[in-house]
Write a structure and sequence with these properties.
The structure holds two protein chains of two kinds.
Chain A lengths: L6 H17 L2 H8 L7 H9 L18 H13 L6 H14 L2 H13 L4 E4 L15 E5 L2 E12 L6 E8 L2 E8 L5 E5 L8 E12 L3 E2 L6 H36 L1 E2 L2 E2 L4 H30 L4 H26 L10 H13 L4 H13 L27
Parallel strand pairs in A: 1-4
Antiparallel strand pairs in A: 2-3, 3-7, 4-5, 5-8, 6-7, 9-10
Helix pairs in contact in A: 1-4, 4-7, 5-6, 5-7, 7-8, 7-9, 7-10, 8-9, 9-10, 9-11
Chain B lengths: L6 H17 L2 H7 L13 H12 L18 H13 L10 H8 L2 H12 L5 E4 L15 E5 L2 E8 L10 E7 L10 E7 L5 E6 L19 E12 L3 E2 L5 H12 L3 H18 L4 H7 L2 H29 L7 H24 L17 H8 L10 H12 L6 H6 L3
Classes of the chains: A alpha+beta, B alpha+beta.
Chain lengths: 396, 413
C-alpha cells in the first residue's frame, strides 16, 4: 500500500504537464472554443507522438498497454490546461473496441487510432440522458447482411472531429454496439451550445446502413460492455475535473496572496484562508477517490462503487471549489477577458455529465443497502465475492 | 500507486482477526477499558498483562519501532493493521500516542532504552499534560512552571482535560522553564511518574458520564481530569530534549497523534453502524432503507467516510516513505472529525425521537449509541488542535498563505 505516485507515474504526469504547458496557452483554448472543429490538430498530433492516443491499447495494434492510472494522469493534466483535445472520447471508444471488437475491426482501425490519425467517439445518451439501459430507444434492425440504424443520440463528444463512432442501439436481441462511420449516409447533426464551450452534438440516424462487421461483440446483451464503457468515461472525466480544479484553485491561492484589501493581502484573512484550505482538501479527496477507482480497474477489481463515489464527490465538491475560487477573485473572476472562467465553466459542465450526484449516489446506495452481508470500510462491497464477516463487526 | 495491501499484510490482518476471535473476551475488554471507574493503570490488570505477553510473542507490539528499543523494526502499515483490528474489537493496544515519537527524536539514549520498550509492552502509559485553564488552542500561553533547583526541577501549576490521568503511569508534561523568554521559547517537556509526591488528580465529569456512553462508541467517553502540581520535585533527568526547546519537541509528537487508526475509526464507525442497522431486520432500519432520501444521504456519507480512509492511507504512505507532512495530517484532521459530526447529525434526523434515547432507556436504538455520539462526535473537532487551527495550517503550511496582522501580534507564525 502506497497511494502516492511512484517514479514512473510522476514521470508520466510531469511529461504530460510539460508538453501541455509549453504548447497549450489559454489563447489556444479560446481560439478552439470558437472553432467548429472543436480541437487543436497540431496539439493533437504532438500528443499522439507522445503516445497518448494509444496509451492503453494493445501493443499488437500500436498501443503501449499502459495501466489506466497512467491515462488518468494524462487526463488530469489535460484538465489542468483545459487542453482542447479529443482524447477522452477517443480513448474510451478505442479501449472498448479493443476489449470487445472482432479481430478484423481492430486490425483495421486500432493502429490508426493509436497513431492519432483516426479519432473515435461514442454515442449512448438520448433524450433521457441517464446512465441506464432503458433510456436507449435507438433501433438497429437486422436486414440482409447488416443493420439499419434509426434514432437520435445526444451529448456526443467531439462528433465533428471523429472518424468513427461507437453507437449503442437496440436490436431484437437487446442492446448492442456498432462502429459507425461518422459521415455515413443518413446521419445528420446539430451542434449543442454547451456551458463548457466544447463540442457536443445531437446526432440523428435515419435509415443508416451498417454492415454486419460493424457489430462490436454480439448482438444483444451488451449492457455489461456498455456499462464498462460508461464507467471508464466517467472516471476519466473525474481525473480531468481534478486537474482542472487544481489549476483553478491555484489561481485563487495566488490571487489571494497578492490582492490587497484593508491593508493586507486578502489571503491573510482567515475567512479566505479557510476557504482555500477547504478547496485543497476537496481536490485532494477527489483525486484519491478517482485514482483508487482507476487503480481498481487496472487490478481487475470491481469498481462500480468507487467510480460512483468519485463522480458524485467531484460533482459536488469540485463545483464548490471552483465556485470558491470565483468568490475569492471577486469581480475580475467573471470578466470575459480574465481566464478563470475557462476552468469554471468546464468543471461546472463536467459535473453535469456522466451521471449526476443523485444518479451515482443511487448506485452507491444499491450496492451498500441491497447487497447481502454487513459493510465494513476498506472491504469491497458486492459484487465482489464476500469476505467472511468477522464476529467483532457485530459488537458495538 | 497502490491502494491495496500485500498478501502478507492481508494474511497479517486475518491472523489478527483470528487471534481476537479466539482470545478477546468481554472480561478482557472490560479490564482494558480506558474509561473504567478503576484507578489501576490501564493494561496492568492480569488479563491485560496476559494479552500483552501473547501479542508480544507474535511480534505485534511496536511493529514500526526500532528493534534496539523493543520494537520489530517493521512497517508502519503493518502496525496500523494490527491497531485497527484491535480497536475494532474495543482494545487500544498502542498507548504510545504522542510520547514515543518525540522520545525517539529528542530523548537521551537512557530515556529511549527505558521508555520505548515499556511503552510498547504496555507497562508505561502517558497522559498528556498540555492544556491549562488559560491555555487551550493557544497552548504556548501555558503557565505551569518548572524551576531548576540544583539537579532537580520544582513544578507548580495546574493542567486541565488531562484524559486518562487517573489510569496512566506517567505524565508527559509541558511546562514553562523561562518566564523571560518569548512564549514559545521558554517551554520544556518532562516525563515523570504519576505517583510523584505533590501531584494530585481530580476527575472532570463530562457530558458523557451520566449515564456513561456504551463502550468504545464515541469520542470523549474516556474520563478526563485536572492535575495539580504543588512543589512537585523531579530529577533533571526527567527533561526530554533541551531545556526551553519543548515547543519544538512537543510538536514532533502531536502531528502523529492527529492521524492513524484511532482517529480514522472514531470518525467512520457510525457510517458502518447505521448502514448495517438499515440492512438489519429491525423495523425502523428496514423502513428507512427504503426511503430515497435516506439512501441518498447514506451514499453521500459513505463516500465521505471513504475519503477518511483514503486520507489515512495517504498519511501512512507518507510516513512509510520516511517523509514529513506538509499539511496532509492537518487536512485529515479537518475532514475526518467534521465528517464524524455530519454522520452523527444526519443519523439524528434519520432516527427521530428513538435516536434521542440514551443508554439503558426503553426503546433506545442500539443501546443509545447514536444519542451518546451526538455528545461526542464534535469533540474530535476540538481535541489535539481544533479544525479551525488545522485549516490555518493547511492554508499557511500547505498553500503558503500569508500571516495576518492579528497573527503577528499573537506571535503565531
Amino acid at each position: 500500500m502506497d497511494v502516492l505516485l511512484d517514479e514512473e507515474e510522476e514521470m508520466i504526469a510531469e511529461s504530460a504537464r510539460g508538453y501541455l504547458e509549453a504548447n497549450c496557452a489559454t489563447s489556444l483554448v479560446r481560439k478552439v472554443e470558437a472553432d467548429p472543429l472543436g480541437y487543436a490538430p497540431d496539439l493533437w498530433r504532438g500528443a499522439a507522438e507522445l503516445g497518448w492516443a494509444g496509451m492503453c491499447l494493445p501493443e499488437e495494434h500500436g498501443g503501449s498497454e499502459m495501466p489506466l492510472v497512467y491515462l488518468g494522469l494524462v487526463m488530469r493534466e489535460i484538465g489542468r490546461t483545459v487542453a482542447p483535445l479529443p482524447l477522452l472520447p477517443s480513448a474510451v471508444a478505442s479501449i472498448t473496441l479493443a476489449r470487445h471488437g472482432g479481430a478484423a475491426l481492430k486490425d483495421r482501425h486500432l493502429p490508426q487510432v493509436a497513431s492519432g490519425e483516426a479519432i473515435l467517439t461514442w454515442a449512448f445518451f438520448e433524450t433521457d440522458a441517464r446512465l441506464r439501459p432503458e433510456t436507449v430507444k435507438m433501433t438497429a434492425r437486422e436486414e440482409d447482411d447488416g443493420f439499419i440504424l434509426n434514432g437520435r443520440k445526444l451529448f456526443v463528444d467531439h462528433y465533428a472531429a471523429a472518424d468513427l463512432c461507437l453507437v449503442v442501439a437496440r436490436t431484437e436481441a437487446g442492446l448492442s454496439l456498432f462502429l459507425v462511420d461518422t459521415d455515413a449516409p443518413g446521419i445528420s447533426t446539430r451542434e449543442l451550445v454547451t456551458l463548457a464551450k466544447d463540442r457536443q452534438s445531437e446526432v440523428n440516424f435515419e435509415n443508416v446502413r451498417v454492415p454486419r462487421e460493424a457489430l462490436v461483440g454480439q448482438a444483444g446483451d451488451a449492457w455489461p460492455q456498455i456499462e464498462e464503457m460508461l464507467d471508464l468515461a466517467t472516471i476519466l472525466l473525474c481525473a480531468q475535473m481534478v486537474g482542472a480544479t487544481r489549476k483553478d484553485a491555484e489561481m485563487a491561492f495566488d490571487y489571494a496572496k497578492v490582492r490587497s484589501a484593508f491593508g493586507q493581502p486578502i489571503g491573510a484573512f482567515q475567512s479566505v484562508q479557510h476557504m482555500c484550505a477547504d478547496m485543497q482538501i476537496w481536490a485532494d479527496a477527489a483525486e484519491l477517490l478517482t485514482f483508487e477507482a482507476l487503480w481498481r480497474l487496472d487490478q481487475g477489481l470491481p469498481a462500480a462503487m468507487e467510480i460512483s463515489q468519485a463522480k458524485s464527490f467531484c460533482n459536488d465538491r469540485l463545483e464548490a471549489a471552483v465556485r470558491n475560487s470565483q468568490i475569492i477573485h471577486g469581480g475580475i473572476g467573471f470578466m470575459m477577458e480574465f481566464d478563470l472562467h475557462l476552468w469554471f465553466r468546464r468543471v461546472s459542465a463536467w459535473s453535469m455529465r456522466m451521471g449526476t450526484s443523485l444518479e451515482h449516489r443511487a448506485r452507491i446506495a444499491e450496492l451498500l443497502l441491497d447487497s447481502p452481508g454487513q459493510v465494513r470500510l476498506g472491504r469491497s462491497v458486492s459484487p465482489a465475492p464476500a469476505v467472511p464477516v468477522t464476529p467483532e463487526l457485530t459488537e458495538v | 500507486m497502490n491502494f491495496g495491501y500485500s498478501p502478507e499484510q492481508e494474511a497479517l490482518r486475518s491472523e489478527v482477526q483470528t487471534f481476537i476471535r479466539d482470545n478477546v473476551t468481554d472480561e478482557l475488554v472490560e479490564e482494558m477499558d480506558i474509561h473504567s471507574g478503576t484507578d489501576r493503570p490501564r493494561g496492568r490488570g492480569p488479563l491485560g498483562q496476559a494479552l500483552y505477553r501473547q501479542i508480544g510473542e507474535r511480534g505485534w507490539l511496536g511493529i514500526a519501532y526500532p528493534s534496539e528499543y523493543g520494537g520489530q523494526g517493521g512497517s508502519r502499515i503493518d502496525q496500523y493493521i494490527v491497531e485497527e483490528e484491535f480497536l475494532r474489537a474495543g482494545i487500544q493496544i498502542s498507548m504510545i500516542g504522542s510520547g514515543a515519537p518525540a522520545i525517539l527524536a529528542a530523548g537521551t539514549e537512557e530515556q529511549k532504552r527505558y521508555y520505548i520498550p515499556r511503552l510498547i509492552r504496555g507497562e508505561v502509559s502517558f497522559c498528556l499534560g498540555f492544556t491549562e485553564p488559560h491555555a487551550g488552542a493557544d497552548l504556548a500561553n501555558l503557565r505551569c512552571s518548572a524551576v531548576r533547583d540544583g539537579d532537580e526541577f520544582v513544578i507548580n501549576g495546574q493542567k486541565m482535560y488531562t484524559t486518562s490521568a487517573h489510569v496512566s503511569t506517567h505524565i508527559y508534561l509541558m511546562a514553562r522553564t523561562d518566564r523571560t523568554a518569548s512564549k514559545h521559547k521558554g517551554i520544556s517537556i518532562f516525563i515523570f511518574p504519576m505517583d510523584t509526591p505533590g501531584l494530585t488528580v481530580r476527575p472532570l465529569w463530562t457530558i458523557q458520564n451520566n449515564p456513561s456512553a456504551p463502550k468504545f462508541t464515541t469520542y470523549g467517553a474516556a474520563r478526563t481530569n485536572e492535575v495539580f502540581f504543588d512543589d512537585v520535585r523531579i530529577p533533571a533527568s526527567a527533561l526530554l530534549g533541551e531545556e526551553n526547546d519543548g515547543w519544538r519537541v512537543g510538536s514532533m509528537g502531536l502531528n502523529l497523534d492527529r492521524v492513524g487508526a484511532g482517529r480514522y475509526l472514531i470518525s467512520v464507525r457510525r457510517d458502518e453502524d447505521i448502514i448495517n442497522f438499515l440492512k438489519s431486520d429491525e423495523a425502523l432500519g428496514a423502513r428507512l432503507s427504503e426511503s430515497e432520501v435516506v439512501r441518498d444521504k447514506v451514499a453521500e456519507l459513505w463516500t465521505e467516510a471513504q475519503v477518511c480512509r483514503l486520507m489515512t492511507m495517504r498519511s501512512m504512505s507518507i510516513v512509510e516513505r520516511g517523509g514529513a507532512f506538509s499539511y496532509e495530517g492537518s487536512a485529515e484532521k479537518v475532514w475526518a472529525p467534521e465528517h464524524g459530526v455530519r454522520i452523527s447529525e444526519s443519523i439524528m434526523q434519520m432516527l427521530g425521537p428513538h435516536g434521542s434515547l440514551l443508554r439503558g432507556s426503553p426503546h433506545s436504538v442500539q443501546d443509545g449509541l447514536y444519542a451518546h455520539n451526538v455528545m461526542g462526535s464534535f469533540q474530535s473537532g476540538i481535541n489535539h488542535g481544533s479544525v479551525q487551527i488545522m485549516r490555518d495550517q493547511v492554508a499557511r503550511r500547505g498553500l503558503g498563505m500569508p500571516s495576518s496582522r492579528g497573527n503577528k501580534a499573537a506571535g503565531v507564525k
